[in-house]
Amino acid sequence: MRKTTALWSFTLLVSLLVSTSAAPAAVRSQNVQRGAFAHQWNAPPQAAQAKSWKSRPEYDAFNAMATEKDPNKRISLDEAFLQKYSDSDFKDLAYVVEMQTYQQLGQADKALDAAHKALEANPDNRDALGFLSYVFPFVYKADDPDHETKLARAESDAKHGLEVLQKAQKPAGATDEQFNTLVKGSRAIFNGTVGFVALQRKDYAAAITSYKAASEDNPSDWYVFYRMGLAYLFSNPHDYDHGIWCIARASALAKAAKDTNAGEFDKYLKQTYIGYHGNDQGLQDIVTQAASSVNPPDGFKVAAMEAPKHTGNTFVDGFNDMTFPLKFGGETAQKAWDSLKGQALELGGVVSSVQKGSDAGTYLVHIGILDTTKATPGAYDIEVKDSKQPNVKNLSPGDAVRFKGTADSYTATPNVMLTIVGQITQPDPLPDKPPAKEKPKPTHRPTHKTAQ
């Protein structure tokens, strides 16, 4: 049987995500920008010169499966093909079709499984490598017991994808521009995943390096800029200048594309900027500039707030005195934390929220102390954790409380948040039941007389 000719699009990965409504919203929102050139040209299957049909029935079965429009029938035909022609040179491509179809049907787990099987059949399958790398940041869960194994697998797939991509040859009929666009888009996906893995492992320097490479190939990917911004902010010392610029660009791009996460990006940006600068003056100018420029202008600096002056409020002043040096990272923050960690503290504020802790019977009480924090929904300055007081669950947002415990840990972004191991001391006793819900007021509808 003669060797195959061009059958499959090298951009199958992108067209797959464009066509499905089951992809995560974050993935779907970037379909157009990442796949604008999908279907414009076809590439031969990977290592096409080494592949051949063993019989006409094998070819016909594959073609019937691949061209079937009904996704459920396509799955049946695919499974039949894989069972009957288990030694087919095109086994990996059959799994890619299966991957595409399961994603179309909204069965993400099966789509991922099919992608892995495609790689078992052909470790160099670009479509499977690209799909797994593209989706991984959206499906990864840090609390997964097997999360480190999955990070290692994702890193391996993405790095191998970069290696395979270097060997890619321009398909017949494709222009240099089309091919270069494709290579850049795929390379951005792989580098973005390598950066994401480094970010999860808190290797912020490596994350920044990979995200920079991804942003050079795809300067319109707001997720790359958002995560690169986090890497800058979490670095030690914290790089607020580049971090705020990157997240400002992410926010602007996401908002322009009406991405569902644009609001969260904007909220995080404002909290971070106000927490460092002291107010939101100048932030909109930064967002406007970042929307049209990948890099900040030479000499760009976000001015840090001056040390807060005492207000006369014991709780506010005490919190500011303890935490202000923690904002900047580096040696100054480390010295401040060394003197603070493990120290007994007693402060007061208002409840932001109460959540169940990771251990049975424990709770996390989130408390706002500063006025800027209280004015931001969902924000808090203190987390009282490991509280085994069952009635803390009856506290409501806005309730005034006092607490005591020992300083356990802190984060500096988007605002300084101190974690305390301790308990709520006031009100005493704690509410023995949750607040009564207000009954909805009856709606009085006007009576309309029928015209005579």
Write the layout of secondary structure elements.
Layout: H1 12-19, H2 25-28, H3 31-35, H4 56-67, H5 71-84, H6 91-104, H7 108-121, H8 126-139, H9 147-166, H10 176-200, H11 204-217, H12 222-234, H13 240-256, H14 262-277, H15 283-291, H16 314-323, H17 330-340, E1 344-356, E2 363-368, H18 371-374, E3 382-387, E4 400-411, E5 417-426
Parallel strand pairs: 3-5
Antiparallel strand pairs: 1-2, 1-4, 2-3, 4-5
Helix pairs in contact: 1-6, 4-5, 5-6, 6-7, 7-8, 8-9, 8-10, 9-10, 10-11, 10-12, 11-12, 12-13, 13-14, 13-15
CATH architecture of the largest domain: Alpha Horseshoe
Derived structural class: alpha+beta
Categorize the overall geometry: elongated
Low-confidence stretches: 1-49, 446-452
Largest sheet: 5 strands, mixed, barrel
How much of the sequence lies in strands comes to: 5-15%
One letter per element, helices H and strands E, the order comes to: HHHHHHHHHHHHHHHHHEEHEEE
Distance between the termini: 85 Å
Q: Helix fraction?
A: 40-55%
Q: Quote the CATH topology of the largest domain.
A: Serine Threonine Protein Phosphatase 5, Tetratricopeptide repeat
